[in-house]
Amino acid sequence: MTTDTTPYSGYNMPAGGPHPPTEPDPEDGAVAGESLGRDAWRRLKQNKAAMVSLVVLIVIAATCLIGPYLLPWGLAEVDWNAFSTAPSLENGHFLGTDANGRDLLTRTLYGGRVSLSVAVVATFVSLVIGVLYGAISGYVGGRLDNVMMRFVDILYSLPFMFLVILLMVVFGRNIFLIYAAIGAVEWLDMARIVRGQTLALKQREFIEAAHALGVRDRKIVTRHLIPNAIGPVIVYVTLTVPKVILLESFLSFLGLGVQEPLTSWGVLISEGTDMMQSAPWLLLVPSVFLALTLFCLNFLGDGLRDALDPKTR
Amino acid sequence: MLTYTLKRLLAAIPTLLIVITISFFLMRVAPGGPFDGERQLPPEIEANLKAAYHLDEPLPMQYLRYMGNLLQGDFGPSFKYKDFSVTELIAQGFPVSLEIGGLAMLLALLLGLPMGIIAAVRRNSAVDYAVMGTALAGIAVPNFVIAPILALVFGVLLAWLPAGGWNGGAWPNLVLPVIALSIQQIAYIARMMRASMIEVLGSHYIRTARAKGLSERQVIWRHAIRPALLPVTSYLGPAIAGIITGSVVIEQIFGIPGIGRYFVQAALNRDYTLVMGTVVFYGALIVLMNLLVDLLYSALDPQIRYDD
Amino acid sequence: MLRQSHTLLGALALSSLSLTTLAVATPAQAETLDIGVMGELASFDTSQVSGGVWESQILMDVYEGLLKENPEGEIMPGMATDWDISEDGKTYTFRLREGATWSDGEPVTAEDFVFGWQHLLDPASASKYAYLLYPIKNAKAVNTGDKPLDALGVTSLDGGKTLQVHLESPTPYFLQLLTHYTAYPVPKHAVEKYGDDWVKMNNIVTNGAFKPVEWISQSRISVEKNPEYYDADEVSLDGVNYFNTEDRNAAISRFRAGELDIIRDYPSSRYQWLEKNLPEATHLSPMLGSYYYVLNARDGRPTADKRVREALNLVIRRKVLSKQIMAGSFKEAYSLVPPGTSHYDVQHMDGVEGDYAKRLAKAKQLLKKAGYGPDHPLNLGLRYNTSDEHKKIAIAIAAMWKPLGVNVEMTNAEATVHYQTLQQGDFDVARAGWIADYNDAQNFLSLLRSGVGNNYGAYSNPAYDKLLDRAASTQDLDKREALLEKAENVALDDYALVPLLYYVTRNLVDPSIRGWQDNAEDDHPSRWVSFAE
Fold it and tell me: Would the pTM count as exceeding 0.80?
């Protein structure tokens, strides 16, 4: 159909050089093939690191959900005989206790519920809003792009602390408030990345092709642009999760997030840092959980990126 | 490009005005004020204080007063740090934050970009996993954990570097804060670079370039890196604005007199003038950085156009 | 020739730069003291100070009031060499020191005190601490704008050599009060010359052992020895640097690295580690401060019921709080006024020590009588402001109240919101603390006086107020003491609050430092400090 074009004009196609055929776009339905999802899943399964990571993540999430019911200690339960004790099998505190005599393993699992749920919801919100916003802004371009991006500039500049305080005033003390506040901040970066990608992609040949075919704009954005922009987006998602988890802990520390006795990995880690030299388990346990989760998320993210990459299909 | 740049700079003015206005009223909605503290003020004194700072006037009037002063370049005195004006505080603190943030970002780019490229080129090999694993450490460990550990190990136990303090910007005092600040950025840049390099390396024109017989090195350097930089650049705009306005954690732990802490402390103190000063400053930076990034886009990918 | 030496100098400078900057990592001059303070000074204008404990350290080094403190915290002559007190205790006459000057050589006169105190009480200054000088005649009226500045009961006599102060009523702690920074003089000539800019580093003049020379906001304030100080020969140090080290753990690292000689606080969670690893440097001693929970006595609150208040007090195991939760770095408290307060025996709330099982049973009974039980549980909101310590204590207290069937909902709020909520009275139980402004029981007891702003729980007992009033007009110190102690007992019998802990002073001090003593005010003027050789 159309000839390949290079991303910048400095490169000249040699005359008579080979023109690799453009691949048929499986999305336009004209060619029978596997659905995107099935195909991606099949390819993901082949990536060992990603699969192992997926399993580990599921195990962690399950442990955080179910584990507390299997453990004898409560979230706020104080063991008056065990203040800041090291991990031991004898006193039943397998991973030790904190300065208030509460079981660390139990609190870490409960904390996992908070951290993971905040991570999932806030990241999902930022993903959906950010991707759509960025794609539309980049695709339509021109004045709309200008206005939309200035709006993003404005949101970037607003004092975040006050935004959170305001949300608290309006919504009261609610964990969803945290999700809202964090999601409201994180989608901005995502939108900018997707917009950048879109600006580059919309000049590409397959978009022109789709145009020529008469595919509607909406379909172009959702079926062609976004899947091709997905690579860096997925990776950025895996980078957003730790940001979100730590942002939540920062808010909670200031009294703008979860209240005691609820806790989160970020809060536990920050408490543990203060006791680093006298009670290192307080720092190590939640840190290991967090680090493990993030590592697995990253390998899974890379695997997903590979699986969803339209070019290597 | 020039007209585009000028248009954007002009657009900056209404953008900033909106930011200032929203922030001004947003601040006042928050409960508590600059004079709420552990010691209750007798009502007469509180009344005196409010009058002295014009806080007893109706809000729209306060806003107009503030805007009037702002247009003359007067950001007002800090409510909390009485001997300094907001302009003085930002003027003193920004060069410090800029130096540390700038060096950190520079280090992050110098390390992160090559790491990402190598990992992408040697995808799924041992090198890839090693490089990415190292980068991941920067994300998995929060900076409020890394910073004290660095101070402890290098400042106290090994005593190679100062454990804190600014010391007028002497280079030994810069090392640990810059490293602590850059670790996270290295991870971000490396990972994003890797992902977008992989994308680009799998694209048509790269295949074309290879088919033409160009060496792998030329393929990478002349054709792949530029478009691959695009997502990283998108990320860098706000990231640079953020990092050069300081990190409250790093500044507090290492005792660096930057402006990072103002973004948190001023809000907590309800130091209205200082908050507004930081908002205006940061807003201007964001607008500028995003403009630079957009200009950089078209340098990286000349097909990108802004005027449709 | 000149150019050659310039370049040589330049080359030397460049090469030595790397060496000196490395060397700066360790304390440069042996006679400069490096102190880590826990906050930023609000201003060198004493009327604008915000009241943080760290501010007084810097202010007492650069200024001196009529009286000053020795390392043990005892008062001794300062700008005044001697004084007379009238029979009725209402007139103080101070003779100022001959030859005392400001750092620019101008003499310190009684005018400077008159000017300074008027400035503090001037409504336009809107000073937070103006109320401390209210014992002075007409001070309150001046402060509220009802009377002009010169109506204040202070006069300069003998051409500025004598200062006479008239009080509203005999105030036994007045001399103590004069060491507080609200009573410092202000250089009238500098203010007249520079206006508001008199506090800038190029203009400022002070009368203390040191004078300010540099202020890098949020990082360091540097002061140098004041050669005009009358006792300059006795001052060992060449200067002092105050570093803002709000992160206490980071401060400990810097102390261990040798970058700081003294740090003025450390986290209670590190106390045991410090005791073990830096025993000679770790200081812990009683302080005139009280950590307690306010019980809201307003109508409609569960805590308005005396039985509830008693029950809540009975089941708290204060020794567990101080020894386990706070790891020994606080002392358990059974009263509001802490031990060490001058002319005062520490009191003890009844029944809150001893057999725990018995106390628990009694508390349960009390709650039952008050109408609470399994089907009508007591729900309390507990508020505290953001801090690791407050959080730990709140968690422990909530756990101690649990066996009573009390459901505690904890709310951590940032300081501004916390105190605003307290002011509005919108809480059941709230954390509060009070550090003495001056060493006198009245400073603490006024916290429970009807209608006082800092009486967050709105506790009101006319008998209590009457006893305080009587004490205020009693000159005989023993009789006064008896009245004050009786008043405290009235409040304790009412279970008006939940006393929890007495504050302690926590400092890390390099063992080579001399002239530094633990004292209950936690005041350590650098004027006495020296390094042992």
Answer: yes
